TrEMBL record:
GO terms for molecular function: calcium ion binding. SMART domains: EGF (SM00181), EGF_CA (SM00179). Signal peptide: none annotated. The keyword 4Fe-4S does not apply. GO terms for cellular component: extracellular region. Residues 22-63, 64-105, 106-147, 148-189, 190-230 form the EGF-like domain. Pfam families: EGF_CA. It comes from the Eukaryota. This is EGF-like domain-containing protein. It comes from Stichopus japonicus. Keywords: Disulfide bond, EGF-like domain, Repeat, Signal.
Length: 287
């Protein structure tokens, strides 16, 4: 007698009896899916390769989706930026930030001394992801450099220019004591040059202290002749004058009632200078 046998079609295996069971090619790794760009999906009697997450089907192959280019990412583009990877992307920390494990933290270049500010003309100011060099007090920016401000030249100081004067320094200024003054610690005090008894070293002079200096003048009965102090004349060749001061400090006045009466002021007294005996009119040549 004739007979027959049922064969399972491709993609199925015969089980006990006459049942054909689907072969799970994916489970048995009987497929050609790469498992990277695509993955295996079992179907009745066969399988398909589906594009993995992060890939798209071009028709014949699965191409990587560039999430960075398509802006399909959650990187904030400030503290971090998008880097495309096979089938996905990662957020890398931007320059000036470091990875703390869960997020990108700003690097404080100023605190870590990772900057090129010289800390004299300028100082470091931390910013988001970077830093700036700001001009220090006493300096101004000229484009790329911080230049010293000359407070003295610009009259931006509190020196009074009498007891003290302004001296510019790097980034500031100081008030130096003027000549004739000394520094007490808090202010400039006038030097009393006259306390030194030798400051006026010409005979017959007296010292008078002035603000920031001193004067040497001839003592009473003496006058400066251009080189030294000489005794004041009280009579010149027999003449008595009001501007010739007598030793007692009074003007020389001729006594017309005396034994040797004198003429009017500036006139001759007697026949010669020996005859002028008015009170206080002293022969300068005998001084």
């Amino acid at each position: 007698m004739g007979s027959y046998r049922c064969q399972c079609v491709s993609g199925y295996n015969r089980t006990a009896g006459t049942v054909c069971q689907d072969i799970d090619e994916c489970g048995f790794n009987q497929h050609d899916c790469t498992q990277v760009e695509n993955y295996c999906v079992n179907t009745a009697g066969s399988y398909t390769c589906e594009c993995s997450s992060g890939y798209y089907n071009t028709g014949s192959i699965c191409e990587d989706i560039d999430e960075c280019e398509l802006n399909q990412h959650d990187c904030n583009q400030v503290a971090n930026y998008c880097v495309n990877t096979a089938g996905s992307y990662i957020c890398e920390c931007s320059s000036g930030y470091y990875n703390s494990g869960s997020l990108c933290q700003d690097i404080d270049e100023c605190e870590l001394n990772q900057h090129d500010c010289n800390q004299v003309e300028n100082y470091c100011v931390n910013t988001a992801g970077s830093y700036t060099c700001e001009c220090s007090s006493g300096y101004y920016i000229t484009g790329s450099l911080c230049e010293d401000i000359d407070e003295c030249e610009l009259n931006r100081h509190d020196c009074n220019q009498v007891e003290n004067y302004c001296v510019n320094t790097a980034g500031s200024y100081i008030c130096e004591c003027s000549s004739g003054y000394y520094n007490t610690g808090s202010l400039c005090q006038d030097i009393d040059e006259c306390e030194s008894n030798t400051i006026c070293d010409i005979p017959n002079t007296v010292c008078a202290n002035t603000i920031g200096s001193y004067d040497c003048s001839c003592t009473t009965d003496y006058s400066w002749d251009g080189e030294q102090c000489t005794a004041n004349p009280y009579r010149r060749d027999g003449r008595c004058r009001h501007d010739f001061i007598a030793p007692n400090g009074q003007e020389a006045i001729c006594d017309k009632t005396g034994p040797y009466p004198c003429c009017s002021d500036a006139a001759w007294c007697g026949s010669s200078y020996l005859h002028c005996l008015c009170s206080g009119c002293v022969d300068y040549r005998t001084k």
